[in-house]
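User: I'm preparing a small set of examples for a lab meeting where we compare how different chains pack in three dimensions. I only have the primary sequence for this one, and I'd like the structure in token form so I can line it up with the others. Please keep the answer compact; I'll paste it straight into my notes.
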Amino acid sequence: MTTHYVSIDQSILQHPGVARAEDVFAYVGELHRKTGWTRVLAAVLLAALVATLAAGSSLTSWLVVWTAGFLAVAVFAEPVLSLATGSAQGWQAMQRRAAQASEDARLLATAENDPRVMSELQVALTRRALAEDVASPVAAPAEAVRAPVNDEELKRLNNDGYY
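Assistant: Understood. Below is the structure token output for the 163-residue chain.
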């Protein structure tokens, strides 16, 4: 007669912790299909909070909280990176503008005390204004009209009804 101390016929039974984990993963997957990641993350964080409060073991709650934290990092990595990149570019642009304003202020202070620098600034501003006037379509010169050079051209001009 053989005595068995271990029962290996447990295919029908399922561990309750495994069943809960499978339910949570199925719920999170279904939420992801129905809604965006923000709601999924909120649900996972809520589940982590409930697990932390309800669990008797601190190891389980620690694992759930850190899993939720890593999930949050994975979900929000790209938006946070783009926000950080945009903020850094904005900061650099602001620093460049501040440096340019400071340099302009120093140049103006120097120009107020030195008439040579002031005259150079005035010449540069005048040159810039003239260049803008020439480049603008409003200030474009009218098409030149050729004057008649002989009597025949003068008669033709007069017969066309210009006078």
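A couple of notes for your slides: The mean pLDDT is 75. The longest helix spans residues 58-113.

User: Perfect, thanks.
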